[in-house]
Amino acid sequence: MATVMEFTSPADEFPLGSVFENLPGVTVELERLIPHETLIIPYFWVRGVETEDIEAAFDPHPGVTDIRLIDSVEDEYLMRAEWEQEYFGVLSALARANVAVLTGIGTKDEWRFEVRGESQEAIAEFREECQENDIPIEITAVHAMLPIQGQGYELTETQREALVLAYQRGYFDSPREASLEEIADELGITQQSLSSRLRRGHRRLIGATLAGSL
Length: 214
Hints:
- The chain is α+β, with helices and mostly antiparallel strands.
- Helices cover about 30% and strands about 35% of the residues.
- It is built from six helices and ten strands.
- Helix 4 (about 155-170) packs across helix 6 and helix 5 packs across helix 6 (about 190-210).
- The longest helix has 18 residues, at about 190-210.
- The radius of gyration is 18 Å and the shape is globular.
C-alpha cells in the first residue's frame, strides 16, 4: 500500500539552503524532482524576494552544477537546479529510494516535506539512506494513502483534511467565507503549506475524474 511520510530537515542541510543566508524572508517550494542519469534536477518556486538577479542569491553548494531562472510570475520565480547524484542529501536519498515528493517547503527555520512511497519498504529504504549518510531528518507523521469512497484514486490524509475544511469553511464559495490564512491557522500550518496541499489535492482529483474520463 502507498505510504506517506512527513518530516522536517534543518534549512542549512539542504542544497538550496544557502539562499536563506542572503534572503532570510524567502520561501522555497519544490515543484517536482527529476532523477536524470547522473544528475538530480529539481524545479522549485522562490517567493517573498525582491531582486532582479535571483540566481545570484544562491551561493555555490557542494555538488550543485547549475541553478537558473526558468520563468517568473509577479514576485514568484520558477527555477531549475542540477546537482550530482553522488552528493548525498535529502533529494539524493529520495531519488535513490524512488520516493516521490508531494510537498517540500523551506524557510530560514527548516524544510518541511511530505513524500510518498509506493510501499512501506520504499519509505524504509529512504530512512536507511538518511541514517547511513548522516542526513538529519525528523519524522513527524507516517500514514497510508486513503482511497476516496472506493474510487480508483487516492489523497493523502493531509490533502483530504485541507480540502474538506476549506469546503466546510466556505473557501470555495463566491464571495469567499474564509481566507487562506484563517484555514491555515485552524490547521496549524503555514499558508504556503495549505496552498500546496489544496493545489496537489485538486490535481489528483481532476486527474482521476475529469482528465481520467477523456
